[in-house]
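> tool_call: predict_assembly(chains=two)
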Amino acid sequence: MKIDHAQPLEYSTDQNQLNILGFWIFLGAEIMLFATLFTAYFTLSHRTGSGPTPAEIFEITPVLIETFVLLTSSFTIGLGVHAMRLGRKNAMVTFFGITLLLGLCFLGVEIFEFMTYYHEGATYQTSAFTSALMTTLGTHGAHVTLGFFWGLFIIIQVVKRGLTPQTANKAFIFSLYWHFLDVVWIFIFSFIYLKGMM
Amino acid sequence: MKELFPAKQVMGFVFSLVLTVVALFVYYTDMSFKAGMTLLLVTAFIQAFLQLVVFMHAGESKDGKAIYTNVLYGVIIAVVTVFGSLLILLWDM
């Protein structure tokens, strides 16, 4: 295995560079997946039947908390990757840990939000609007949940094996995934919530 | 401690907060639907681009070109899917 020391650790081998490029191609497919969900939501959000409309169930406070929590977590994982490039293992693990805690906060608020919807009579089966809404939010939330466990295993591996070309590569790819989830949330925040409450 | 908080990323974070606050104007002020959607489209796409460049280091390696091409391809498919469907199903064109 040839290691190029001029590059950051996560890019240092040919395999690592291919892994990163491959993950970007996966993210391209994820963009398309979320595009189909947004399409379904936009075309169905007026079909509320006898259920509530977007303006009736959306509330600004939980949405604001979710948005700022996720934005901050995107920043802290960015700092984590920066610390990793400086070779500061402890700082990196701390930043990744803070990121995952913020991810948990996000999930907590989202679960609370779903429970509120349920009590207000907006369930998955209520109308085309609520189905499309919960499928879109749920797919994003499932990604964050998966990301939490993925990130947890990455942290464990870095703690046990230290910063090697392999662990650095995995951590970097995980950071790409986490930033991507933040980007998806920006679109959910803008075009589902804010549009619905306008 | 200071080296752990690079200026580029701190600025990127501050800018992303500013963009979020600007987007919130559509909620807190009385804006027409058209003006609101325009504002949201602008802030959301700048925000996405910011993440891509500052935090995801998209253009950094020798594969930068391939990565940007791939993202652009994904975005084009996404935009065509969303607006193509809206044109047919919602806007009756």
